[in-house]
Structure to design on (290 residues):
């Protein structure tokens, strides 16, 4: 049965079995309640997606926003993107340095410029012009969600995201990340690339998490809607198929997706994925592993 509204959140597909995620799950459960109240009150999918991802960034529980890790040069370069399914307007930032909420900057790019993606110094100048909240002292502000060492060449990752269908039937997706652990300066993954890590149209909204290089090569987020449109697949089949295509290249990760009927899919091909789902019918579920 079609749902009046539906949403899903993720905190990344990098969980490991030797760690508990009770704190992260409790926070996501509270966010479901906040998002549900917004959607019951007729908030737009775009506003809810922004609010959810901004809160995930600020929590410090995930490898995004406050919980991001520095790159190999000790600099925090963050990425984010957002897309409005009804209009296909999108905004993104890449290698953004010095601001608390990359998703807010990405939305401003969408709403205040004719562009989709701003990177590096250009993104910083734009965020400064629009008085986005700065990080005064990066070493005091950032509390990396993980401190594990990364082997050379390892694509260790983390991301947060939200996909939403509102009561008006509009869809939106938002994604934010600190990128790979110990990444090369200037490295950009799938998160700020519309079609690779984030997508929304009138059929579905998708937010991805995993090894960004492989998600880029498989164009995973847009592949979900293509499978729905051209192969007439269900959301679940399309999401699983797009993820399997990426996995065949040797990658791991997952995605969250919601379609125009309010169906929700949360497949992953990794050990776990922090995720939470809710809909107008009373569904509330928060999980990390299977």
């Amino acid at each position: 049965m079609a749902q009046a509204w539906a949403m899903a959140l993720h905190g990344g597909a990098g969980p490991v079995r030797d760690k508990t995620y009770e704190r992260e799950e409790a926070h996501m459960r509270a966010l479901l309640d906040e998002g549900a109240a917004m959607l019951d009150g007729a908030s737009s999918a775009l506003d809810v997606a922004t609010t959810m991802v901004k809160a995930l960034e600020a929590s410090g529980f995930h490898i995004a926003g406050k919980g991001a890790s520095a790159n190999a040069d000790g600099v925090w370069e963050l990425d984010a993107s957002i897309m409005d399914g009804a209009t296909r307007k999108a905004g993104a930032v890449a290698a953004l340095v010095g601001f608390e909420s990359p998703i807010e900057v990405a939305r401003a790019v969408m709403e205040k410029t004719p562009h989709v993606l701003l990177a590096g110094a250009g993104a910083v100048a734009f965020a400064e012009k629009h008085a986005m909240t700065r990080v005064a002292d990066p070493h005091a502000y950032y509390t990396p969600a993980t401190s594990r060492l990364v082997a050379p060449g390892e694509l260790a990752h983390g991301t947060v995201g939200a996909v939403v269908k509102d009561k008006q039937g509009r869809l939106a997706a938002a994604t934010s990340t600190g990128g790979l652990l110990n990444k090369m300066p200037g490295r950009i993954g799938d998160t700020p690339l519309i079609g690779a890590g984030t997508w929304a149209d009138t059929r579905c909204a998708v937010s991805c998490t995993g090894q960004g290089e492989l998600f880029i090569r498989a164009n995973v987020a847009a592949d979900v809607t293509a499978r729905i449109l051209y192969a007439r697949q269900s959301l679940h089949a399309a999401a699983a198929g797009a993820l399997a295509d990426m996995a065949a290249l040797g990658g791991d990760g997952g995605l969250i997706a919601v379609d125009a009927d309010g169906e929700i899919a949360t497949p992953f091909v990794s050990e776990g994925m922090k995720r939470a789902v809710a809909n107008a019918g009373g569904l509330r579920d928060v999980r990390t592993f299977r």
About this structure: The helical segments are 22-40, 45-59, 102-112, 120-129, 138-141, 212-218, 220-230, 235-247. Residues 6-287 form a domain with the Glutamine Phosphoribosylpyrophosphate, subunit 1, domain 1 fold (CATH 3.60.20.30).
